[in-house]
Amino acid sequence: MAAQKSLQPLLEVRNLSLGIRRKSGHLPIIDGTTFKIDAGEIVALVGESGCGKTLTSLSVSRLLPQVAEITGGEILFHGGNGGEAVDLCSLDEKALCRIRGKEIAMVFQEPRQSLNPLMRIGAQIAETPELHFGRRSGGSMRPFELLQRLNFPDPDRILAAYPHQLSGGMCQRVMIAIATICRPRLLVADEPTSSLDTENQDNIIELLGRINREFGTAVLFVSHDLSLARRFCTRTLVMRHGKIIDEGPSDSLFSTPTHPYTGELVAAIPRAENRPGLGSWHPPGRAAPPFLVTRGLSNAYVSRSFGLFGKREVKPVLRNVNLEIAAGEIFGLSGESGGGKSTLARCVLGLIDYDGEILVDGRSRRNVPRGTPGRRRKPGDLVQMVFQEPGASLNPTKRIGWLLEEPLVIHGRGAGSSGERARMVDEMLALVGLEPFHKARRAHELSGGQKQRACIGRALMLRPKMLIADEAISSLDVFSGAQILELFRDLRKRLGLTILFISHNRDATEHLCDRVAVMRNGVLGQA
After folding, report:
1. pLDDT of residue 480
2. Cα–Cα distance for residue pair 322/112, rounded to 1 Å
3. Rounded to 5 degrees, what are φ and ψ at 162?
4. Is residue 474 exposed (0-12), middle (13-18) or buried (19+ Cβ within 10 Å)?
5. pLDDT confidence of 27, banded at 50, 70, 90?
6. Is pLDDT above 50 for 279?
7. What is the rounded distance in angstroms from the CA atom of residue 154 to the CA atom of residue 423?
8. How far apart are CA 37 and CA 237, in angstroms?
9. Contacting residues for 66 by C-beta, under 8 A, at least 6 apart
10. What distances in angstroms separate CA 415 from CA 39, 380, 422, one per listed residue?
11. C-alpha span between 266 and 259 (Å, rounded)
12. DSSP string computed for 193-261
């Protein structure tokens, strides 16, 4: 897949050290990291959350946050026409701007946060070459030509669309097109597939491979998905505690790991055959009745094709969904993006309108359409939600203890006593595997797994009987994801929780769940 290698590496990182400035002092994150990437090579950088992968990738193009600083080492880039090495650490901002986008391009994890919601896609793709070559220059391909060459479906429609009119997978493909229109020599892709279903992941991987073949662009693929890294990348770097502790050809590195930490990463991948305790858990002495029942559940939304005066379209999302989940069961729901999984969850929570009937714990949840006078949503005393992005679910200005106590205050729980509420918060922290000192932390001071534990604890503060986990591990590394799966299993056992586990990760659903169904185009089917 990779293009022919040159005699000298394209990128050399030598003894890179980087830290975070804090009031209490300097916190080292990357400590003496050294690696190289050859021209046209595809290299993976893997490791658990907090090991320094993202900061390493950002340091390549010097796009670090203000609190981060490089304290030592070199980043040598053999770019330009002459191929002479330049130390990116020594360049000023003006010189770096001539390299970013033209020689070294970056693709970030969240495409919707990177795209301008007020500009059409065609204008956003054309923006980078205009900055580097001028509006009339022929130094790069035109947007339509690029999308055609990269095998995009219906390029005219995509170029005329706004970001909100495209799916998440297509937005990420657009971001990759923006990054590659100037044919950079190096493309850094930071978790480009983490929030996508399997089909969209394959589309992204195919697109990156096509760019590598067509343009000879080297790719640094930062990911916590070891299966993708093994399948897509010729070589893999394993990072731990800010250092590269293992590297080698991807296939042999994961099939026969020699470093103990690499072996632990491989062993942590959830697999159906490693699933402990098959079968549903039920309270002893009686059969579990249905806890959640949907009958003829349907939902649709109205959209306009382009702009305020575009054609009005009614698009069905759920189509006559009939579902039963037993009390105490962990039910898995998988399927591609846009299939209706999250819409089903929002209907159960009463967040959106629907047709049909929903029964929760034997009680009907009456749908009250929007615009109805006096319309009120029922408090989440029976069902609560855990979302995909734990960082986006937690108020960044509040401490974790305050965030866990807030539901109790809103719903008048805890006997009106702050001491009683503090005791309930402490109990919940212990239940989800956090320490008492985490109460004083803010979200940005926690790892990805700790943030998700805090979100689970917040959802459980009102002691609901059912938890809906919507892609709760897709943004986590393999270690943190495996720990969250075990936490769900433990909570089911200790609290008798019913769990609807929504995920595009089939290995995770088959590892955790008693039953699994697949949703495609709003229709529910067996896995």
Report:
1. 86
2. 33
3. -95, 160
4. buried
5. confident
6. no
7. 58
8. 11
9. none
10. 65, 19, 11
11. 11
12. TTTS-HHHHHHHHHHHHHHHHHH--EEEEE-S-HHHHHHH-SEEEEEETTEEEEEEEHHHHHHS--SHH
Q: What residues contact residue 337 under an 8 Å CB cut-off, 6+ apart?
A: 167, 168, 169, 196, 197, 199, 200, 504
Q: Amino acid identity of 204? A: I
How far CA 492 is from CA of 280, 432, 480, 497, 498, in Å, comes to 10, 12, 19, 4, 7
How wide is the angle at C-alpha 255 spanned by C-alphas 236 and 189, nearest 5°?
Answer: 25
pTM above threshold 0.85: no
Q: Residue type at 402? A: W
Write down all domains in the chain, each with its CATH number in brackets. 11-269 (3.40.50.300), 327-370+378-526 (3.40.50.300)
Identify the pLDDT of residue 5. 46
Joined tokens for residue 268? 């942590």
Kindly state the average pLDDT of the residues 411-439: 88
Q: Which residues contact 423 (CB under 8 A, 6 or more apart)?
A: none
Separation CA 96–CA 148 (nearest Å): 30
pLDDT of residue 4: 46
Give the chain's largest Cα–Cα span: 78
Q: Which pLDDT score is estimated for 109?
A: 79
pLDDT per residue as tens digits for the range 40-75? 999 999 988 778 888 899 999 899 888 888 999 999
For tokens 């632990």, the residue is 264
Q: Residue 436, Cβ neighbours under 10 Å: how many? A: 11
DSSP per-residue codes, 109-165:
S-HHHHS-TTS-HHHHHHHHHHHHH-TT--SS--HHHHHHHTT-SSHHHHHH--GGG
Tokens of 362: 């034997």
Q: How many residues does the chain have?
A: 527
Q: Which residues pair with 75 in a beta bridge?
A: 13
Instruction: Tell me the C-alpha to C-alpha distance, in Å, between residue 347 and each of 354, 502, 526.
Output: 7, 14, 21
Measured at the CA of 501, the angle between CA 483 and CA 285, to 5 degrees, comes to: 90
Q: Has residue 274 got a pLDDT over 90?
A: no
Beta strands in 62-123 (DSSP E): 68-78, 85-87, 104-107
